Amino acid sequence: MQFRDVIGQENVKRLLRQRFNEGRMPHAMMLSGATGAGGFPLALALAQYMACSHRTEEDSCGQCPTCKKMAKIAHPDLHFCMPLIRNRESDDPATVEADMLDALRAQVADTPYFSESEWYARLGDSAKQGSISAAASRRIVEALWLKSFEIPYKFMILWLPERMHLAAANRLLKIVEEPPEGTYFILLSVRPHEVLPTIASRVQQTLLPHLEQPTIARALEDRGLAQGQVALEVAQACQGDFTEAQRIAEEGGESPFLNLMQALYRGAIANRYPDLMDWVETVAKLGREPQKEMLAYFARMVREMYMFNLGQGDLCFSIGQEREFAQKVSPYVHGRNVGWLLDEYSTTLYQIARNGNPSIIFTDMAIRHARMILLKIKV
Length: 379
Ligand SMILES: [Zn+2]
Fold this sequence. Notes:
There is one protein chain. Helix content is 54%, strand content 7%. By secondary structure, the chain is an alpha/beta fold. The protein has a five-stranded parallel sheet with strand order 2-3-4-1-5, with helices on both faces. The termini are far apart.
């Protein structure tokens, strides 16, 4: 991956090149931002830039043997640590590592802009949440204490440090603080506030801003994912996140959770308990990761509904069927219940993330919806 393959983020690219060329590259850094802001491709481009012996001021050469191996994720000094799903058949560290690299190569060949749930789907189970275990930390430490093979550097790209167990983090503290000569940790976080403070305090943090709409529209066109007006609409709907832009362009505008939100709101507006209980039954079976994504989606859509209720449709991001739905339901989402709805989704998300019983949690949520949605008042 070269810098020129990374969408936008020109200021961050400039900063990284400058730090390296002035000999100020920190041995441990963390880039934070939505997956679609491009942390992962930036980390790949940075490692390749530093490793390439024919680099220019602007970019790696893309042609030398080092660049080619880096691009294929097959360089012996380029290491990765990604959250994995537990209880996989094999615990043999070499097999775990090889499987992870296979999955990662397939993912990057497909697109280096991917969400956490896309990663778990690639590992074979999108319903589970992965983690970085103490065993993974042990692999990191072992890999980094070996001498580098082909270049004077070793890179450890660690995706989602917020998924790291405490025991894993403790094992890493010393090596992150004083890495072996020529070793660079590049951490990529989506929720930096959830990274353990012992880790966060040892890395230099850089924030990745959301991408601008014209930049996303151009990238969609360049990649043949959407053209013209459609590219502009997708760029508007994805809220600065290229991972989301790809999904919208490929699957059409509607989130897979739109149907579930429509069913919940229809049941609540009609005050039909049997329908709400059917809804609970469907949702309880989804698995925790999709349930969490669904709740985040509901919160985003409620914001859209409230904007329509206030007559501020031009501030809404949604397009197509989502926009129609948000507009239709907007009389039911107003100043008296919008705060309650948003709190409800974040509390429910918290309970699900802490392994509460989904049937009980979603039953409570559905019943409370019927009560709150019926406060039909136009503000
Ligand atoms: Zn090169």
